[in-house]
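Q: A reviewer asked whether we had any structural model of the full assembly, not just the individual parts. We don't, so I'm hoping you can provide one. Inputs are below.
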Amino acid sequence: MDQQIIQDLVLTELNIIKTDGGDVLHGMKKSDPGFISFGEAYFSTVTKNSIKAWKRHHKMTMNLIVPSGEIGFGIFDDREESESFGKFSTIVLSQSNYFRLTVPPMLWLGFKGLSKDLSYLLNIADIAHDPNEVDHLDLNEIDYDWSYLK
Amino acid sequence: MDQQIIQDLVLTELNIIKTDGGDVLHGMKKSDPGFISFGEAYFSTVTKNSIKAWKRHHKMTMNLIVPSGEIGFGIFDDREESESFGKFSTIVLSQSNYFRLTVPPMLWLGFKGLSKDLSYLLNIADIAHDPNEVDHLDLNEIDYDWSYLK
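A: Here is a predicted structure for the entire assembly that you could use as a starting point for your response.
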């Protein structure tokens, strides 16, 4: 994985505890890096090769976890004051690469389903969903090559 | 479903919003019934016909959501002051019966995987995991017929 990730993105490795008849997969504790406050937790599902892009939150910090399936994330930084201004990050999450991805406000995020089965994304967000703090761009309005994610 | 559930158990119907390429599944907002505070969110997985039982928390309120698969819950109330003292509740959760189950402290809980594919349980808990506040009993120490759940 490219470790030269965008400024302020945080990847935190999570534990999977094997037990008989099923596992325990850590998500987030209030004492963890990336936790600010609790606003809402919700799932997004994505089918293989579907792309959901682009969104930018003005206020929300997202904490993204993929408990099932595999999802590729494209993140674009157009924050003029950022050290990574103009750069992209590509991150793939699954149980095989089980990290929590913390995305601060003002980064553009999109994601693509990579597994044959439906993929599940949990967002533990510091504020509840508010359409007034979300910007949208169409897929082609940011020049990112989604074909690398497969 | 049996609506004569144990005192203080709360079932809250959740929305699934259909969108192209995948859905959005609501989980919990801080303004929702059952939310006390945020301590930890974690997943448990359970294979078909595996039973994980019994546990009782002294402090934790659990908010249980099944985004994938199907899980049957057995809950036993041995709180002497309870109106439902000595009673059991049986609740099945899945995307087809998409509810959040809020379980207050001091109830005995077990669960069984019912779907062919692995089932996923998200617990949004008001405190972080603490083994000192959890009691355990072996499966057979509470007389509950798990064969009804299939």
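A: Points you may want to mention in the reply: Chain B is about 0% helix and 50% strand. The mean pLDDT of chain B is 95.
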